[in-house]
């Protein structure tokens, strides 16, 4: 038997949030390690991905995936190393991509586990070469269908999805306008990522600034935020604009519709008259079979630094709940990853 710790540390979902999540929704526990049986393996978590979709999984409501279970480890994507194996397809020491959640060890029968080899940056399998990068690539290329000379607007422009969308848009000849929270993130989008402009959504005159930055209107809007950003974008969408929708982080903790008039007829009328294509997608449900195609396209772009990637690394599993809460409020800068091992 391989030498490893005898205790598993885990964050369980203690209660379902009422609105924005708080630390009290999670409970930190120490458990004895499970015994590995035939056909199983013990995974040691090295990196845990924290992503906005997790907020939806905390609710007990019908969605595209089952809710996280109370008193079980909180769900999440992980990069792990096989600590011990009685599984025919995996050996101790293998690096794998898994969904073993917020814990330091997990028992697995191999379902949903993918070998990744030993990457120079294993945690990147949770970001630029994983679910966020895949989301950016398929959403933009398949639904957005960028063409040279078009204007692409992307919200959360320095996050793992938005930053990748913008850089891919630029490589495809688009003029890219980012939306981000704060001057530092906007400067990074322009100076480092090469966007033509980036507008700070915290500004009082945000809508006016966005309009000024898009004098020819907007041909593609990559939607991952919703709320006031969508409100400012929608009037600027051109005829035959495409709007891939991968998330709506501004509304994940809302318990009711926002106050104000019902703008559904206005939005539906705009979609009709301007023939706007707005399409939601769930990356692995809709494009799971195209993951190898994505890796083949993205890996060389990352290796040649044609697409840059930034991580927001948090040290220690004990800090996961606060890092998650901060990420939902936009306090992270780059892809939020917890270094567990």
Description:
This protein is an alpha/beta fold. The chain contains ten helices and 15 strands. The strands form three sheets. Strands 3, 4, 5, 6, 7, 14 and 15 form a seven-stranded mixed sheet that branches. Strands 10-9-8-11-12-13 form a six-stranded parallel sheet, sandwiched between helices. Strand 9 (175-180), helix 4 (183-191) and strand 10 (197-200) form a beta-alpha-beta unit. Helix 2 (131-144) crosses helix 9 (291-303) and helix 5 packs across helix 6 (227-233). The relative contact order is 0.15. The model has no long low-confidence stretch (mean pLDDT 93). This is NADP-dependent oxidoreductase. Keywords: Oxidoreductase. Residues 24-338 form the Enoyl reductase (ER) domain.
Q: SSE layout and pairings?
A:
Blueprint lengths: L6 E7 L12 E7 L8 E9 L3 H5 L20 E8 L9 E4 L6 E4 L5 E2 L15 H14 L6 E4 L5 H12 L3 E6 L2 H9 L5 E4 L5 H8 L4 E5 L4 H7 L3 E9 L18 H10 L3 E4 L2 H5 L3 H13 L7 E5 L4 H9 L6 E5 L2
Parallel strand pairs: 8-9, 8-11, 9-10, 11-12, 12-13, 14-15
Antiparallel strand pairs: 1-2, 3-4, 3-6, 3-15, 4-5, 5-7
């Amino acid at each position: 038997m391989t030498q490893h710790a005898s205790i598993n540390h885990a964050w369980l979902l203690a209660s379902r949030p009422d609105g924005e999540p708080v630390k009290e929704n999670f409970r930190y526990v120490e458990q004895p390690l499970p015994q590995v049986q035939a056909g199983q393996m013990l995974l040691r978590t090295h990196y845990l991905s924290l992503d906005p979709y997790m907020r939806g999984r905390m609710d007990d409501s019908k969605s595209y995936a089952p809710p996280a279970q109370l008193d079980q480890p909180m769900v999440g994507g992980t990069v792990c190393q096989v600590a011990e194996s009685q599984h025919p397809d995996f050996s101790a020491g293998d690096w794998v991509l898994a969904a073993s959640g917020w814990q330091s060890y997990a028992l697995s029968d191999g379902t949903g586990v993918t070998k990744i080899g030993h990457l120079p940056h294993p945690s990147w399998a949770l970001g630029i070469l994983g679910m966020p990068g895949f989301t950016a690539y398929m959403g933009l290329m398949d639904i957005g269908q960028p063409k040279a000379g078009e204007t692409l607007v992307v919200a959360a422009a320095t996050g793992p999805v938005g930053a990748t969308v913008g850089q891919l848009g630029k490589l495809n000849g688009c003029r890219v306008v980012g939306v981000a929270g704060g001057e530092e993130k906007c400067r990074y989008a322009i100076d480092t990522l090469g966007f033509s402009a980036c507008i700070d959504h915290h500004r009082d005159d945000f809508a006016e600034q966005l309009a000024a930055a898009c004098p020819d209107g907007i041909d593609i809007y990559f939607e991952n935020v919703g709320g006031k950003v969508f409100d400012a974008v929608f009037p600027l969408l051109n005829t035959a604009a495409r709007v891939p929708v991968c998330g709506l982080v501004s509304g994940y903790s809302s318990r009711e519709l926002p106050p104000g008039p019902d703008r559904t007829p206005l939005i539906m009328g705009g979609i009709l008259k301007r023939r706007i294509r707005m399409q939601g997608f769930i990356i692995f449900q809709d494009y799971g079979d195209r993951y190898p195609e994505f890796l083949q396209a993205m890996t060389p772009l990352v290796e040649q630094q044609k697409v840059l990637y930034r991580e927001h690394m948090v040290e220690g599993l004990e800090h996961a709940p606060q890092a998650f809460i901060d990420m939902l409020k936009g306090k992270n800068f780059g892809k939020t990853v917890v270094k567990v091992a």
